[in-house]
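User: quick one, sequence for these tokens?
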């Protein structure tokens, strides 16, 4: 069965293709359109069909739209209620619902040959759930979905048994942990539905002195759900303008909300486990990208294993919707093969791009060693290898790399990317060495979705990747899965004694992650990066060896 999944309703438009239960391709429209999160000017910021991503998915499989058995659309307008009837203020919500109802026609126009009758609506949170429960390596599992909102709920708790979802609880709007986090994100001067991870990073600089107030306004309800009551955030901390400096008060509010979120997640997981006694929990929804909360859930929660969908945000519902429809129609979905589900280029194609750009380059017989040498000499390297990642994390396919042994490299990389200095960068480490350096968080951790304590003996050796609270958001690298990346790490360790390299996404502030060779060349040309390693080729900054 051939099922194309589509997300095109709130933000992060994306497409994914599942053929006979196997995930063949998945891509986010922002990587093609270069509009971060797929956002256009308000009010039509969220309703972007992933036309380019969908066409590319079909091309990747060598099929046409007419060959599809179904298209899964991750929002069911039949379940939606007007925003004002749910206590939400969204003057454009009625147009969103109308847009969703018309989606089959829009898709048939965008994908010639598609029968609009093949479009099937999948409830938003069911699509999120499937992206975790059906894509995880564990066939039977519990699943928690938490985000801003779906059609009329903000949360789903359930379990998968033999691929079938049983929903055990959900939370009606306007109560929403995701929307509270969005409100605080905006109050702290960041972009809502985009910069929530900045609140998580800022939290490490504060103390949770507003926790008593938040425990009164955000509470679990004893039935698998929760209640979120209105808060006058200005009564706690004055709002920060986007161009103003943050203060300790702002960090304290972030810390208070972060800690309350962790407490609520532990209570929700405890309720769910009490009904299922499962040993595995899977997570999806935007809240599941909070790696600090994920770690606490894994460390203190009742489950032996916690698996998080790498594309846990709305982009992941494209994959989840496709998996759900495939399972409903009799296919047995295979676990997600990895995150490298996007576009890739062979060396002939890359060399053609380099020649078109008229940049000097060299073909390397050992890219891993050449990159390790540059890093050991404290160079910053743009690393463009294989297929691009699905989801918001750069995991060694579209990455900026640097030496972790120099504390100044944190500020240096944040300057390269044009982002706030309080934000940490991540360590990439050989899986065989991770336990020697990092503790508390689950290992292995290939998708950078948990934080780990950095061993005291290593904090001075890799200061660039140690956050202010002594933690790091780790990506482990297994040579069986990522041989080139593992080779580079091994070569770097031979030169420096450090099995760790700094890894952050290959982009600059406000821009989507680099996806194709042109993006890579533009980023390299505009940012102070010393070396671009693209396929088998090296492009050096003039005067840098």
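Assistant:
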């Amino acid at each position: 069965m051939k099922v194309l999944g589509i997300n095109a309703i709130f933000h992060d438009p994306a497409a994914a293709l599942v053929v006979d239960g196997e995930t063949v391709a998945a891509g986010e429209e922002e990587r093609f359109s270069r509009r971060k999160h797929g956002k256009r000017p308000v009010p039509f910021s969220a309703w972007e069909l992933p036309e380019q991503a969908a066409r590319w998915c079909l091309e990747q499989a060598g099929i046409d739209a007419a060959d599809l058995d179904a298209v899964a659309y991750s929002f069911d307008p039949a379940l939606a209620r007007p925003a004002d009837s749910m206590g939400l203020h969204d003057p454009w919500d009625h147009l969103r619902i109308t847009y969703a109802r018309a989606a089959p026609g829009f898709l048939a126009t965008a994908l010639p040959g598609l029968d609009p009758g093949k479009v099937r609506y999948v409830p938003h949170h069911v699509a999120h759930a499937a992206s975790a429960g059906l894509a995880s390596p564990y066939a039977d599992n519990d699943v928690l979905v938490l985000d801003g909102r779906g059609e009329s709920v903000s949360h789903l708790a359930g379990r998968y048994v033999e691929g079938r979802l049983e929903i055990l609880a959900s939370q009606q709007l306007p109560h929403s942990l995701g929307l509270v986090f969005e409100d605080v994100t905006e109050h702290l001067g960041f972009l809502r539905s985009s910069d929530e991870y900045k609140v998580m990073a800022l939290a490490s600089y504060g103390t949770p002195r507003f926790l008593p107030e938040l425990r009164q306004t955000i509470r679990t309800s004893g039935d698998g759900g929760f209640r979120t009551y209105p808060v006058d955030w200005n009564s706690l901390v004055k709002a920060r303008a986007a161009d103003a400096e943050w203060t300790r008060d702002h960090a304290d509010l972030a810390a208070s909300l972060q800690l309350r979120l962790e407490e609520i997640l532990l209570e929700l997981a405890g309720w769910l486990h009490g009904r299922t006694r499962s040993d595995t929990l899977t997570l999806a929804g935007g809240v599941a990208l909070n790696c600090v909360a994920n770690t606490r859930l894994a460390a203190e929660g009742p489950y032996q294993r916690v698996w998080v969908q790498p594309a846990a945000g709305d982009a992941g519902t494209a994959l989840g919707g496709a998996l759900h429809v495939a399972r409903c129609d009799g296919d047995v979905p295979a676990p997600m093969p990895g995150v490298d589900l996007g576009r890739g280029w062979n060396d002939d194609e890359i060399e053609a791009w380099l020649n078109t750009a008229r940049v000097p380059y060299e073909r390397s017989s050992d890219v891993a060693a050449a990159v390790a040498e540059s890093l050991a000499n404290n160079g910053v390297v743009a690393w463009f290898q294989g297929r691009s990642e699905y989801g918001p994390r750069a995991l060694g396919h579209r990455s900026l790399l640097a030496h972790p042994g120099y504390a100044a490299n944190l500020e240096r990389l944040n300057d390269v990317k044009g982002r706030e200095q309080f934000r940490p960068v991540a360590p990439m480490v050989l899986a065989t060495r991770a336990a020697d350096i990092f503790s508390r968080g689950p290992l292995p951790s290939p998708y950078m979705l948990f934080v780990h304590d950095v061993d005291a003996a290593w904090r001075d050796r890799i200061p660039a990747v140690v956050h202010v609270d002594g933690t790091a958001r780790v990506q482990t690298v297994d040579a069986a899965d990522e041989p080139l990346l593992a080779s580079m790490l091994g070569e770097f360790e031979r030169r420096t004694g450090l099995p760790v390299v700094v890894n952050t996404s290959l982009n600059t502030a406000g821009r989507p992650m680099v996806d194709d060779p042109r993006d890579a060349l533009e980023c390299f040309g505009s940012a102070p990066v010393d070396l671009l390693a693209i396929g088998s080729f090296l492009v050096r900054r003039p005067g840098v060896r």
